[in-house]
Design goal:
Blueprint (H helix, E strand, L loop, with lengths): L18 E4 L2 E4 L10 H12 L9 E4 L2 E4 L4 H17 L15 E4 L2 E4 L2 E4 L1 H9 L6 H13 L7 H9 L16 H15 L13 E7 L3 E10 L2 E11 L2 H4 L3 H15 L1 H4 L4 E4 L4 H6 L6 H10 L2 E10 L2 E11 L14 H15 L18 E2 L5 H11 L5 H9 L2 E2 L3 H9 L3 H6 L22 E7 L11 E7 L5 E6 L4 H16 L4 E4 L3 H4 L1 H9 L3 E4 L9 H21 L10 H14 L9 H6 L21 H33 L13 E5 L11 E11 L4 E6 L7 E4 L3 E5 L5 H4 L1
Parallel strand pairs: 8-11, 14-15, 16-19, 19-20
Antiparallel strand pairs: 1-2, 3-4, 5-6, 6-7, 8-9, 9-10, 12-13, 16-17, 17-18, 21-22, 21-25, 22-23, 23-24
Helix pairs in contact: 3-6, 5-6, 13-14, 13-15, 14-15, 17-19, 20-21
């Protein structure tokens, strides 16, 4: 049918649901649109209703807008074709003359070429697959697997062959990501192309003959072929396969075979219908299932489904191997089963019943003797010696881990709670607490920075220090970054004190760009001094201070500091000879570096800071004499209106991109499992200033008296001293002892 979807009108009461805008005008669909999710289903049902009036419905097969008419004589074909065309005309549908295939004994229907001799893949698709090069991106690989997977019924063991290619699509990679191609992938790619090129013709199903299913299960896949015997020769009707899930791969072989039988029968149901099915399998799972010797919830569910079918068992001999299977299955839901399974072989009984018992007992063996415990006998230790023994072995082993201490103890001593006691007592070892590092997986996950509401809403400021002194006495750079646009300002200074900071903020930032709502910084004396606090209070600016020794809290300005230093070094190396000039003038290179940073697109916002501030890319001179694009001669009011529109679009895009970036940042750190600190817990605090090479890494213990958030900050005080509110990040603390430790442990 040509433009079949548009032939179905949409009710006027529902037309508003399909409204859309195009070039500042509003439209709506009055006919069924092609992009609607339910359009194929609705049109298919429409064709079903139209073709109900034909005289021979069994001679017509249709799928959505494709109709196949099959008859055994020309006279019948002409008559049936006339009926179908008349019904379609009466319904107001049209046909596409370029796609109509009339009076042929071989037609292409739904991508498959069908004739009296059977079915083969569409030669055009086969030729297309042969010409496809090796995929380099995820999109190209998905396209190749989509074309080949459409013809998977013609490829024996498709799932097992294509498994290396599907490995590249795990974890949902990006569409343009490059593939990590390897020899295994190349072999699978060539095998699929060769298998499709040499695909055999599949027999058209004959409902008068029984169907034969030959099924096998490997470690990773279920493979089956559906055949029918004609003149003593098996001819394939279709190939079926699928990969096993990680859970299914852990099944024993008997359960895998039962899963394969259940899957292939349900998979071929649309072909076999109510015909008899002969199943040939290298195992006897059905007999074991009916006797109740295969355990598990899934297998019991399959068993109830199997017992609803009449079956009988037969032996199939081929090449000296016996394949036992359930044969001639036909639905008989209203009959009782008069079937009793033969006794199973001893090997299968051992596999299904005795192997789990043997595994639970540790695979112990005995030859003409009784079973016994192979470990040496251990001394049952009185309770008074538990702690001295643990501390003794912990000290002589060099304060090793609890697992090592437990290993030393279990060779000679035993008591019921030996493992718990070792863990509890060694968690109180002060020496280990002062030296052992904090495990990576127990660190606090990275959180999200405060998202500003717009340009110049929130600033981050910091000093870039440790720069070589230059002419003029400049040794520091005050860096100011707008968190929304990522616009950067940098000012060389002689000192990094509070008065210098306040002067630059007033003269260079506030008077040029206006007053922000928030300023974030570290706890340096140049930011927490009274002059800065007073100025911010008078200007209604809220100050936020980050945790000490935690540069991640000021991640944006710290990242710009690194970029600034690196760019300055590159500019100096390019323009001067460091070996000759001992003190390069980085002040002169600073302005050019700032221009380059402002013109570079930021990955988070996907715009350059200059674009978000001015609404247009930064004009840059071209070295080849290419003329710069001339600006349109706008009037002021017209330019202002266009600038507002452009800025609004870019700022909204940047805000959206920043939200996505923070979300991905939170996801990427989610595998960490932070410790949940509670009030009253004892923790060790990381030392930031150590004296000498033998100083400890941690100090304490300290007591937790408050916390802001479950994993972010802690307020601690040292035991035996007045409590002080000292805030630290969760990664700077580690648990020393749990709150629920008993007095018995302290003793």
């Amino acid at each position: 049918a040509a433009n079949g979807f548009w032939s179905i009108p949409v009710h006027p009461d529902s037309q508003y649901k399909f409204a859309f805008s195009f070039r500042d005008r509003q439209y709506t669909w009055v006919g069924l649109p092609q992009g609607f999710h339910n359009s194929p289903t609705l049109f298919h049902q429409c064709i079903v209703n139209i073709l109900q009036g034909v005289s021979t419905p069994s001679a017509i097969i249709h799928y959505v807008d494709d109709i196949l008419i099959q008859t055994d004589t020309k006279e019948k074909h002409y008559a049936l074709l006339g009926e179908v065309l008349g019904l379609l005309k009466e319904a107001g549908l049209k046909l596409n003359p370029s796609k109509v295939q009339l009076m042929r004994d071989s037609v292409t229907f739904l991508g498959v070429q069908i004739s009296a001799g059977g079915r083969i893949p569409d030669p055009a698709k086969v030729k297309l697959v042969q010409s496809l090069p090796r995929p380099h991106t995820v999109t190209a690989l998905r396209s190749f697997l989509g074309i080949v997977g459409f013809c998977r019924d013609f490829i024996e063991g498709y799932s097992e062959i294509a498994t290396p290619l599907y490995e590249h699509l795990k974890d949902n990679p990006g569409k343009k990501d490059e593939l990590d191609w390897n020899p295994t992938s190349e072999e699978a790619f060539l095998k699929l192309k060769q298998a499709l090129t040499m695909a055999p013709a599949l027999r058209n199903p004959d409902p008068t003959l029984p169907f034969i299913v030959e099924e096998a299960v490997s470690e990773t896949s279920i493979i089956a072929v559906l055949t029918q015997e004609v003149h003593g020769k098996s001819i394939p009707v279709g190939y079926f396969s699928r990969t096993l899930t990680p859970v299914e791969r852990a099944y024993d072989q008997c359960t895998k075979q039962l899963l394969g039988i259940h899957w292939i029968i349900t998979q071929t149901e649309y072909i076999c219908g109510f015909n008899n099915i002969i199943i040939r399998t290298p195992h006897t799972p059905v007999a074991l299932q009916i006797k109740g010797q295969v355990k598990g919830v899934s297998t019991q569910r399959w068993g109830r489904w199997i017992t609803e079918l009449d079956s009988k068992r037969s032996q199939y001999h081929e090449g000296g191997n016996y394949h036992t299977g359930a044969a001639c299955w036909a639905p008989a839901l209203d009959k009782k089963i008069l079937y009793k399974c033969h006794p199973s072989d001893s090997a299968q009984k051992a596999e299904t019943e005795y192997l789990p018992v043997w595994q639970k007992r540790g695979f112990c063996t005995a030859e003409n003797d009784i079973l016994y415990h192979q470990d040496p006998l251990a001394w049952v230790t009185p309770e008074q010696l538990h702690l001295p023994l643990i501390l003794y072995f912990h000290q002589i082993s060099g304060h090793c881990s609890p697992a090592r201490v437990l290993e030393l103890l279990q060779g000679l001593y035993w008591w019921p709670s030996i493992k718990e006691d070792v863990d509890n007592h060694l968690s109180l070892c002060l020496v280990c607490a002062q030296m052992n590092p904090l495990p990576r997986k127990k660190q606090v996950p990275m959180g999200n920075l405060h998202l500003p509401e717009g340009p110049w809403d929130t600033l981050q400021i910091d000093y870039c220090t440790n720069l070589p002194p230059v002419k003029g006495g400049y040794k520091h750079i005050l860096v100011v970054v707008d968190m929304f646009t990522r616009w950067i300002e940098a000012f060389p200074t002689h000192r990094n004190d509070a008065l210098t900071t306040a002067k630059i903020l007033w003269e260079q930032i506030f008077t040029r760009w206006g007053f922000p709502h928030h300023i974030e910084s570290d706890n340096g004396p140049h930011f927490i001094a009274d002059v800065i606090r007073t100025m911010c209070t008078m200007l209604r600016i809220q100050q936020a201070f980050h945790i000490p020794y935690r540069p991640q809290s000021s991640g944006i300005v710290e990242r710009f500091n690194r970029t600034l230093k690196s760019s300055l070094k590159k500019a100096i190396l390019e323009s001067t000879d460091i070996m000759v000039k001992s003190s390069p003038d980085w002040v002169q290179a600073l302005t050019g570096v700032l221009m380059a940073i402002r013109a570079t697109t930021v990955r988070t916002t996907r715009h350059s800071p200059y674009e978000l501030m001015t609404g247009r890319p930064m004009p840059i001179a071209h070295p080849c004499g290419v003329p710069l694009p001339t600006s349109t001669n706008y009037q002021h009011q017209q330019f202002f209106a266009q600038l507002q529109e452009v800025l609004q679009t870019k700022l909204l895009s940047a805000a959206h991109n920043m939200g996505i970036s923070h979300f991905r940042s939170a996801i990427s750190h989610s595998p960490m499992r932070p410790i949940q600190f509670q009030i009253g817990d004892s923790v060790m605090l990381k030392k930031f200033l150590r004296v000498g090479g033998w100083d400890t890494n941690w100090e304490g213990p300290y007591e937790v008296i408050d916390h802001l958030g479950p994993n972010v900050q802690l307020a601690i005080t040292k035991r035996g001293r007045p409590k002080q509110m000292l805030w630290f990040h969760g990664d700077q603390c580690k648990m020393y002892e749990k709150q629920q430790q008993t007095d018995k442990d302290d003793q």
